[in-house]
Write a structure and sequence with these properties.
The structure is a homodimer of 261-residue chains. The first copy, chain A, is of the alpha/beta class and 261 residues long. Chain A is built from 8 helices and 14 strands. In chain A, strands 5-4-1-12-13-14 form a 6-stranded parallel beta sheet. Chain A is globular, with a radius of gyration of 18 Å.
Chain lengths: 261, 261
Amino acid sequence: MQTLLLDLDGVLYQDDHVIDGAVETLRWCKRRNIPHLFVTNTSSRPRRALVERLSSMGLSVSDQQIFAPPVAARDYLVANDATPLALFVRKATREDFEGLELLDDAAEQGAGSVVIGDIGEAWDFAALNRAFRLLMAEPRPLLIALGMSRYAQGSDGLVLDVAPFIKALEHASGCEAVVMGKPATEFFDAAVRKLGASPAQTVMIGDDIVGDVGGAQATGLTGILVRTGKFRPRDLEGDIRPDAVLDSVADLPQWWENRDS
Amino acid sequence: MQTLLLDLDGVLYQDDHVIDGAVETLRWCKRRNIPHLFVTNTSSRPRRALVERLSSMGLSVSDQQIFAPPVAARDYLVANDATPLALFVRKATREDFEGLELLDDAAEQGAGSVVIGDIGEAWDFAALNRAFRLLMAEPRPLLIALGMSRYAQGSDGLVLDVAPFIKALEHASGCEAVVMGKPATEFFDAAVRKLGASPAQTVMIGDDIVGDVGGAQATGLTGILVRTGKFRPRDLEGDIRPDAVLDSVADLPQWWENRDS
């Protein structure tokens, strides 16, 4: 048996359009009964909104098939009693944390955890400095990274994602973040377990050489890079060697069937 | 012969007031003919403004006694032909780079170097993302850090300095910054050479356990930490062990004379 993990943004869609062949690849996946999950670092939308967005693009996916940082973080925060939360997430994503105690928006101390998601243009000095001051207060809160993606392909160019802000906060405060998302091995392991598979049986396909391919390979999965989304030719010049490089997710069925033969 | 390097912010002054005993310590320094330099990571003001500020607080210092990142960076950029410059420095600090070719303020490619100083509240997502895009353009520019201080003590609490933003950009772009300032060994070495001394003959006194004490010790200097400025008791719990910890720079003469005896 072989199982599959698929990244979303840059692999199945980009901005508001489906990538050519993505719908057909998902159909092939269902037809062949390949167990699969969508493993995304998206923290800019709640899971419910991701499902709706995929649906509007003709990609039919259920809540339970989406494995994303806010959902993993919620479980972790409850298990570690790490409230009240200082949430640095977009307003919409707050629903994934509903029911947990939140810190006052202006407070600079007293957090049980500082949770950092992709808030994009909402980052400014005041927000980053507030997160820093919260981390410097005693007792020290947990620093939680909702994914460690470095950047994404935006409509007008590359845009910074969560990881650079985590690196800034880690360096300034001396804290080490707990990473809920790619490329953390724990996150890939949890996704593989959810499929009832083993890493060696599982293929990950994504457009991020570090987050998708590097993280998957470090966990023992096969890592495939696509030349869509944030892909840059320079990605192939580093230390991480993808097990395959495909022009897009449209080429996955052919690669898969050839590999089997 | 023994020589001395002194940090400015948090050691001689804080916000707009002189730290008690600082004037007397500088007088002692002159009376004893101890060769000394002021080694600062300040990039928020040009050297000329630093001299004026010190003078207004009763601290008489000449231009040539101040060793700061913009001055060191200028020499390096000229030697490495790394123009046009994308300058992320405060308006006032631009005068330290006068005469060098600057990149257009809106350009997202074409930089010979991306120079990052302390711009404080001027950091927002757009500015950081622009620096990132410049670094991702081909051919890749140099990334220049005007010091690698993690944070400073501001009037209402701790404030992020240059280093966290450099860490963010390094991680996002895969570039490695050339550090012009503390704690870079090259920077301490250059300061010691300017005094015609050797590292083993030189004492560094500062309020930053990493930037001042760690950097100095790594270069072979004696590193003294003061309990003023950004000092926190937690600073003494890490891997860096200061050669001495003083309540403030006021205690330096006594420590120095006792050491000699």
